[in-house]
Design a protein that fits this description.
six-stranded mixed beta sheet; binds zinc ion; Immunoglobulin-like
């Protein structure tokens, strides 16, 4: 109701062009508020209750159970880890009785893992990370019958060779692709390369954690950050900037400011852990925690981090507040989406991971309200095996490549999402 009033008031003050743009943004905001906040709206949305896999000869069957029929389509993403994406009209995810906005699980046969999420106010996605290139032999929607009460979507997959997989058409038009930029929420051309800011933790007078053999965390993070920068630049797909490229001390807030100045589309902070138990080892990925969100909002005010949407003074404060919270929410979703892509890639690289690999924290560097950000603890310097992996450029390459593959997937999916709108 309140939103409608604001919308009504708005029309009187602004010209038609401005109203159109703001209405478009607002309608997304309203949709999101409606679907994400209102339990009533969610109750009417199709509920997906299970994703299952079965093996039949050399084929893998994917079964998606839901309580009502759902429109869907599927497509293949050939770059990075081969993936098949099943896109559906917005659903409510309630896999194994657990209702959540996003999640993941193990696959079987040709599907190594699966992830699910909402990728727009009107669509949801099931992403199948394949263990080998595969094609969809057939897909069917089935109604309930006397044996079962659920509606089903079934996809049968069969392994194909790399060339055949790559020849499968993907739905990305190469011209006139528009992308909603994280940093300014205005529609921009995708011809601009995504900007990634890499943050090597610690530096200068701050050594960070100290390893069993005396390794400094600041040296491991710098060497890894430089290797990641080179690997990302080699793809030709990104612009890369670093918070530090040598052994200097940088304040945490300057690291965040740098990400914002560069209009970063993704901020990756690299660290190495220390623990009290020498056997604790493995990588973990952190995104902003709920308490960190509050801190982010407080910092936005105290640091005068003016979001681009706030610069338009013609807008009422109510509308600005809605847009700002929309951006914060979307930033958080995108950070989690990247973390959910990164963890399976790290695991697939045979790199050790901690239990509960995806963690939430209020680390300062994660606090930019408009830049999706993750902090990767690559391993424990207090564990001799992790220290050996992290100080060996040859071994370290595995986790670096995992980050590159996750980055490729992240931006590939993002471009697709906007291309379809
Ligand atoms: Zn650290």
């Amino acid at each position: 109701m309140r939103l409608c009033q604001i919308r009504g008031r708005f029309k009187k003050k602004l010209n038609k062009g401005q109203v159109d743009v703001i209405q478009r943004i607002l309608s997304v905001a309203i949709c999101m508020l409606f679907f994400c906040v209102s339990g009533i709206a969610e109750a009417r949305t199709t509920r997906v209750s299970d994703v299952r896999f079965g093996l039949e000869g050399d084929e893998t069957r994917v079964v998606i159970d839901s309580d009502s029929p759902v429109d869907y389509r599927f497509f293949v993403l050939p770059n990075g880890t081969p993936r098949i994406v099943v896109e559906m009209a917005r659903v409510r995810w309630s896999i194994n009785g657990l209702t959540s906005e996003a999640g993941n699980g193990d696959g079987d046969g040709l599907v190594a893992h699966y992830r699910y999420e909402h990728n727009s106010p009107t669509t949801s996605r099931l992403i199948l990370d394949l263990s080998a290139p595969a094609k969809v032999l057939g897909s069917y929607a089935m109604k309930p019958n006397h044996e079962r009460s659920s509606h089903r979507i079934i996809l049968d997959l069969r392994q194909v060779n790399e060339a055949e997989f790559r020849a499968t058409p993907t739905p990305v038009p190469d011209a006139e692709l528009v992308m909603i930029s994280q940093s300014d929420s205005l529609i921009r051309s995708a011809k601009r390369k995504p900007v990634i800011v890499i943050d090597a933790g610690h530096g200068g007078k701050d050594p960070g954690a100290i390893g069993v053999k005396g390794t400094f965390e600041k040296d491991v993070t710098l060497a890894s950050a430089l290797a990641l920068r080179d690997a990302l630049l080699r793809t030709g797909r990104y612009e890369v900037s670093m918070t530090r490229a040598d052994d200097t001390f940088i304040e945490l807030e300057d690291r965040v400011d740098r990400a914002r100045e560069f209009h970063a589309d993704l901020f990756i902070s690299l660290h190495a852990d220390a623990g009290s138990k020498p056997h604790t080892r493995g990588a973990s990925v952190y995104t902003l925690s709920p308490s960190g969100e509050k801190r982010s909002q407080a910092l936005r005010k105290s640091h005068d981090w003016v979001l681009d949407v706030e610069r338009d003074t013609a807008r009422s404060t109510e509308v600005n507040d809605i847009l700002v919270s929309l951006i914060e929410r979307e930033t958080k979703n995108q950070s989690a989406r990247f973390a959910n892509m990164l963890i399976p890639e790290i695991e697939r690289a045979d790199w050790p991971t901690l239990d509960n690999t995806h963690r939430n924290a209020g680390f300062f560097v994660l606090l930019a309200p408009d830049v999706p950000a993750v902090l990767v603890e690559m391993g424990f310097l207090t564990n001799a095996k992790d220290e050996a992996l992290l100080t060996s450029p040859r071994h370290r390459k595995h986790i670096i490549q995992a980050i590159v593959r996750a980055t490729d997937s992240f931006f590939e999916d993002k471009e697709l999402y906007v291309a379809q709108r």
